[in-house]
Amino acid sequence: MRMQFWRKAVEDIYCDNPPHQPVAVALWRAVKRHNLTKMWFTKIIDEREKNLDDRAYRNIQELETYAENTQSALLYLTLEMLGVRDIHADHAASHIGKAHGIVTCLRATPYHSARRKVVLPMDICMLHGVSQEDFIRGKQEKNVRDVIYDIASQAHIHLEHARSFRKKVPVKAYPAFYCTVALDAYLYNIRKVDFNIFHPSLQKRSTLLPLYLYIRSWKKTY
């Protein structure tokens, strides 16, 4: 029902008849002000609807597709709100969104495991001989950490790709990409604990993130 509401809400917003709901009204105003592309909202709803059961991803590509249609779509909308319509910025947004989706999947693993759910890509788990039960039991053997290493490495690769053409991305687009501060921090911290996804330090908030964000903004980079 929730997805049906938002699907109809998006249609009504683009017909200039938003439902009397605070978020929908705010979206309508944003759409009118920034001429936001309807397709990105539709992709987010479609992808979330397909994943409401939080099943395991069959492979890393399926996780990347989910991230592209949700996290990257949000970044495309953010770019439009910043007045940026540039192919290089879109390319960066695609990779950063995928990295964001992968990191979010990793961060949620302890939460899901405690509820007997595992959504990590099955192909990488099978490659290292790791079962879903291993994560549910909170095992920390090397093969379990190897799974996390492979997945985290894919997020790192996407961030490096996004930065490889940084000089071609308009500076005006950079604020949309400051989420990389939190992604870099998580990937650094998980590397520091040798990819033990269940290490308690990974569940703590970093009080330094605002400082890192300020430095990134001051340096005009992402």
Secondary structure elements and their pairing?
Layout: H1 2-13, H2 22-34, H3 38-50, H4 60-81, H5 87-107, H6 109-114, H7 122-127, H8 132-136, H9 142-164, H10 180-192, H11 209-219
Outline:
By secondary structure, the protein is mainly α.
Number of discrete helical segments: 11
Mean pLDDT: 95
SSE sequence, one letter per element:
HHHHHHHHHHH
Poorly predicted tracts of residues: none
Question: In terms of structural class, how would the helical and strand content be classed?
Answer: mainly alpha
Strand share of the residues? under 5%
What is the share of helical residues? Answer: 55-70%
Features of this protein?
single chain, globular, mainly alpha
Report what the structure shows.
The structure is a single chain. The chain is 65% helix and 0% strand. The chain is mainly alpha-helical. The chain is globular and about 55 Å long.
